From TrEMBL, chain A:
It comes from the Bacteria. It comes from Halomicronema hongdechloris C2206. This is Uncharacterized protein.
Automatic annotation (TrEMBL), chain B:
One of its GO terms (biological process) is defense response to virus. This is CRISPR type III-associated protein domain-containing protein. It comes from the Bacteria. Pfam families: RAMPs. Residues 9-332 form the CRISPR type III-associated protein domain. The keyword Oxidoreductase does not apply. The lineage of its organism: Bacteria, Bacillati, Cyanobacteriota, Cyanophyceae, Nodosilineales. InterPro entries: CRISPR-assoc_RAMP_Cmr4 (IPR013410), RAMP_III_fam (IPR005537). Keywords: Antiviral defense.
């Protein structure tokens, strides 16, 4: 294959359009999630754990925002799959914490998240959020 | 017709050669690029301009020293404009004033430090054909050989592509065939030649990754031999992939110009630059009416002047491009090749 792009712009545009749909739909009653992308870009500076934690924080209170954050994480995990980096995606915060810190395997294969994987995931997440911000600027 | 020579540029700071902030206010200031690989270049005219400006300074210093020796009172060292002796209301640039005084004293400038001799005389009004002359020394554009790219979680790697390596080979006369990614015989994915400090099977970048890396120990032969940086993480990618990797490698900043009296943004501008530790190469042609330059003997048979832009050295720090005042353009230039008495690479073998 050789050079393989993550296709970040395409994923980011899709995410932003989803957020825009939610915000525009009166029936769904969104929580103004479009502008969450700026917060996402800010939060990557604090690491993967805190980024993932944000969707937990919104859960039950601002469900739409929570889903936007989670969707972004899901897409990051999808992007990193072909690069052979398995990003944990649990619903249990305790298990997530351990997996993200490389204390227990990320899946049944016994693979751990290495420091190198963490740095890679964070770099890709940063780029993805940059793309999200760009598309948000375009549509807001 | 020509002696062959070349220059290797290693950037010690980000290097921006392209539009400058003053020309495109509030915009993105892009660097000049090669049209095929879309990678950064320094035009030959910019290189010549730098060499010309440096030699002009040497000519000025020569004039000042000679005039001083002849007992002429020189204007203050920092005075950029000087009153004309004939007409005190007329202000002349310092160099022009020195030239006029030197003419009165019949002081001539040796060819060695005369930039108009080597790089062609600029146009002057009132003379046939503007008084221009053909340059004795010609520069072509500098292209990248290796550009360092950030790899998250991994060491920085220097990237090149067959097209850029081919130009390097053309200029230096390197005998080996250009290394390129090879498709395996059974139609398997291409294998990318790499030399990596630690054995790895893939390299990650911000926007994608490379796999199918093939260990290639002699890849380091493609790093210029006097290079100060000697990277040990090298990878050669396809010609069509270099542009996206080059784009990830560029140094980018958004800057603001504040208003003079209040802390309020007057305008925004962004700029890009080649990162530090990039390696570029440019060819130089020296007309063969100029005697060959042998560093060891440092004399020509007929006593005529030779082109020695760095005096008796072949390595010098020079500033190229714009945004110098905000930390760009610091480079180290090494001159090499046939004209400088270097044996071609194949003579080593």
């Amino acid at each position: 294959m050789g050079w393989q792009a993550y296709g970040l712009d395409r994923e980011a545009q899709w995410l932003v359009l989803q957020a825009l749909d939610i915000d525009n739909d009166k029936d769904i009653k969104g929580d103004a999630c479009l502008r969450e992308s700026y917060k996402m870009r800010e939060s990557v500076a604090y690491g993967l754990e805190r980024f993932w934690g944000e969707h937990m924080r919104h859960q039950g209170k601002q469900e739409k925002k929570s889903r936007y954050w989670k969707a972004t994480w899901d897409i990051l995990a999808n992007i990193l799959g072909p690069a052979d980096v398995t990003l944990p995606n649990d619903s249990d915060p305790k298990a997530m914490a351990q997996k993200l810190w490389g204390e227990i395997p990320v899946d049944s294969s016994g693979k751990m998240l290495t420091l190198e994987d963490q740095r890679l995931a964070l770099a890709v997440l940063t780029q993805l959020c940059d793309c999200l911000v760009w598309w948000t600027q375009r549509y807001k | 017709m020509y002696h062959r020579a070349y220059g290797i540029i290693e950037t010690l700071a980000p290097l921006h050669v392209g539009a400058s902030a003053g020309e495109e206010t509030g915009n993105l200031n892009l660097i000049f690029r090669d049209q095929f690989t879309q990678t950064g270049i320094i035009p030959g005219s910019s290189i010549r301009g730098r060499f010309r400006a440096d030699m002009r300074l040497r000519r000025q210093q020569h004039l000042e020293a000679s005039l001083k020796a002849a007992g002429v009172d020189l204007p203050a060292a920092t005075a950029r404009k000087v009153s004309s002796p004939e007409d005190p209301k007329k202000r002349l640039p310092r160099l022009e004033w020195l030239e006029q005084e030197a003419e009165k004293q019949s002081i001539s400038v040796p060819e060695l430090v005369n930039e108009n001799h080597w790089y062609g005389h600029h146009a002057v009004t009132g003379q046939e054909d503007g008084g221009t002359t053909e340059a004795l020394v010609k520069f072509e554009y500098a292209s990248l050989v290796w550009i360092p790219v950030f790899c998250p979680g991994q060491p920085v790697v220097w990237v090149s592509c067959p097209r850029l390596l081919r130009r390097y080979k053309q200029i230096t006369g390197k005998p080996e065939p250009v290394l390129r990614p090879k498709a395996a015989a059974d139609g398997q994915p291409k294998q990318y030649p790499v030399k990596l400090r630690e054995h790895r099977d893939r390299l990650f970048f911000n926007l994608g990754f490379l796999d199918n890396l093939a260990e290639t120990p002699d890849l380091s032969n493609w790093v210029p031999k006097d290079s100060q940086i000697q990277p040990d993480n090298l990878v050669v990618v396809d010609d069509q992939d270099i542009s996206i990797i080059h784009d990830m490698a560029l140094y980018r900043q958004t800057r603001t110009k504040l208003e003079d009296d209040v802390k309020k943004v007057e305008n925004f501008f962004g700029f890009e630059a080649l990162p530090e530790d990039s390696i570029l190469i440019f060819p130089i042609a020296v007309k063969d009416s100029v005697p060959h330059y042998d560093r060891a003997s440092d004399a020509s048979a007929d006593g005529s002047a030779r082109w020695k832009p760095f005096k008796n050295r072949t390595l010098r720090e020079l500033y190229f491009g714009g945004l110098e005042s905000i930390g760009c353009g610091h480079c180290e230039v090494t001159l090499a090749g046939d004209y400088f008495g270097d044996t071609p690479d194949d003579a080593d073998a």
